[in-house]
Amino acid sequence: MGQIGRNDNVTAVGTQILEPSWDPDAPMRRAGSPATRPAPQPQPQPAVAGAGVATGWAPIPTQRTASGLAGQGPVVWCARVPITACGPEEAAERIVAAAAELATRPAPDGLAALARPGVDVHQCNAYTLALADRDPLLRGMLRAASVNFADGKPVVWHNRLFHRDRHLPTRQVRGADLFTDVVRLGQEVGLRHYLLGSTPEVLARVEANLRAAYPDAIIAGAESPPFRPLTASEWHHQCERIRSSGAQVVWVGLGTPKQDWETTRLAGALPAVAIAVGAAFDFIAGTKKQAPPWMRDMGLEWLHRLASEPTRLWRRYLFGNLRFLAAVARHRAARG
């Protein structure tokens, strides 16, 4: 079975990751001769500083396993990153199906053992895509991801405006909503969840609130990694704790882009669905207020968050939004 979000032209060289050799939205040279593109250059994955991220080199397998995410809807390109276009309900249903499938799959052998054992899911908003626009390593990682959802109205608007030939959803897949939807739906199949990130106090409140709202939900484990790079040994033991818990879905809240790198590493090591969820832990715990529905519907959630945390977020939204708009404009202009 195929997998939505897959780009078969991304290839791996040892622990290095290459930019795709073909991109349907990539700029083409407009000379009199046929369009050409520069040969891809290998880009090593560096250590990423921050909470709970392992140091040194870490393989990013780009061969994927089949999963219930297949057939999840059209994949469109936004700022040189593939986005799986589907609504929030379908996204949650497909993640539950993918996690259940991974749990019943026999251990691979032969060449299949080289495939990535898990599935990495990324929430792409304007800020994520702005970072990917200036960082080829992050962009390459997102291109190689199992699936990228549109977590932000600007990304949804872009996709609907520039891909009018597709029937695309009008709603974004918000991290907090995806979190609660998957936990709710997962009760029916006994899905096991693991929480990774934030602080012990926030995680305790997340667990308590989830158990109150969804009594049959199974929280298999929770941990808050230290806010520093993990050693190779620490990261290995973290993976073993997740594995021994039997978790089928790992929710990763370490901040962008650290959580995206960690999600990809976990999917390369564990037969689970690893999902980067941003501020979802704080929202579910109640330590941060979510924007009211009308602001989310109008694409003003960023303004609500900026008003709530101006000192921390003003650079992100000022420069991030401008960078996203510039990336989109440059990309569309290059396509003509």
The level of helicity is: 40-55%
Question: Strand percentage, roughly?
Answer: 5-15%
Class by SSE composition = alpha/beta
The biggest beta sheet is recorded as:
6 strands, parallel
Strand order in the largest sheet: 7-6-11-10-8-9
What is Rg?
A: 19 Å
The 3D shape can be described as globular
List the helices and strands and how they pair.
Blueprint: E1 12-13, E2 16-18, E3 42-44, E4 75-78, E5 81-84, H1 88-104, E6 119-124, H2 126-134, H3 136-143, E7 147-150, H4 153-162, H5 175-186, E8 192-197, H6 200-213, E9 218-223, H7 232-245, E10 249-253, H8 258-267, E11 273-276, H9 280-285, H10 293-297, H11 301-308, H12 310-335
Helix pairs in contact: 1-5, 2-3, 2-12, 11-12
Description:
- The chain is of the alpha/beta class and 336 residues long.
- The chain contains 12 helices and 11 strands.
- The strands form 3 sheets. It has a 6-stranded parallel sheet, with helices on both faces. Strands 1-2-3 form a 3-stranded antiparallel sheet.
- The protein is globular.
- Residues 1-68 have low confidence and may be disordered.
Provide tags for this entry:
11 strands, alpha/beta, 12 helices, 6-stranded parallel beta sheet, 336 residues, single chain
Give a short summary of the structure.
The protein is an alpha/beta fold and 336 residues long. It has helices at residues 88-104, 126-134, 136-143, 153-162, 175-186, 200-213, 232-245, 258-267, 280-285, 293-297, 301-308, 310-335, and strands spanning 12-13, 16-18, 42-44, 75-78, 81-84, 119-124, 147-150, 192-197, 218-223, 249-253, 273-276.
